[in-house]
Amino acid sequence: MRKLLVAGALVVVAATGCGAHDEGPGVPGTASGSLEQLARRAGCRPDLQTDAAELRQANCGSGEGRYVLATFATDRGQAEWLDAADDYGGTYLVGRKWIVVGAEATVTRLRGRLGGTVERSSSHHSDRSGGGGHEEGAGRHAGHH
Questions:
Q1: Cα–Cα distance between 3 and 144 in angstroms, integer?
Q2: Which of 50, 53, 57 is nearest to 71 (CA)?
Q3: Three-state secondary structure call for residue 113
Q4: Burial 4-35 (b: 16+ CB within 10 A, else e)
Q5: % of the chain at pLDDT higher than 70
Q6: Residues near 116 by beta carbon (within 8 Å), at least 6 away in sequence
Q7: What SS3 state is found at 93?
Q8: Is residue 8 classed as helix, strand or coil in its secondary structure?
Q9: Which residues touch 71 (CB under 8 Å, ≥6 apart)?
């Protein structure tokens, strides 16, 4: 079921390049709060798609600016979701117990409102060496990759 949720969320992800993001001035501290609080800070009217104890997920925006905002009950749940999402590639904005999935330009824009760390999965490349495109210090669980 987790793979199905991830697959549905990643439908909105455009093909993106891999590698580190550029640190920019004016990036706020990483936001925290409920899905609704994060959505408000991002300027989104959330269209709730999943409302479970361990995962809440909503669609936001429209057109090329469309993205998915997901919140997690636990750090482990978030880490497992990211591990499963690696199979699909994409660009993610990652905070503590929340993730935004969308096109790179959308994720970069939202980082200016939500803070967090941009991660790019390299799983869509056939020459993957197992390292992924995750940045150091992103709050990932120990032992990942």
A1: 18
A2: 57
A3: helix
A4: ebbeebbebbeebeeeebeeeeeeeebbeeeb
A5: 66
A6: 30, 31, 93, 94, 95, 98, 100
A7: strand
A8: helix
A9: 34, 35, 38, 55, 56, 57, 97, 98
Convert the pLDDT of each residue in 40-92 to its tens digit.
Answer: 999 999 999 999 999 999 999 999 899 999 999 999 999 999 999 888 888 99
For the chain, first and last CA: distance in Å? 23
Task: Write out the two tokens for 59.
Answer: 């669609």
pTM for the full model?
0.70
Residue from 50, 52, 60 nearest 102 by CA: 60
Structure tokens at 39: 């959505």
Element holding 7 (H helix, E strand): helix 2-10
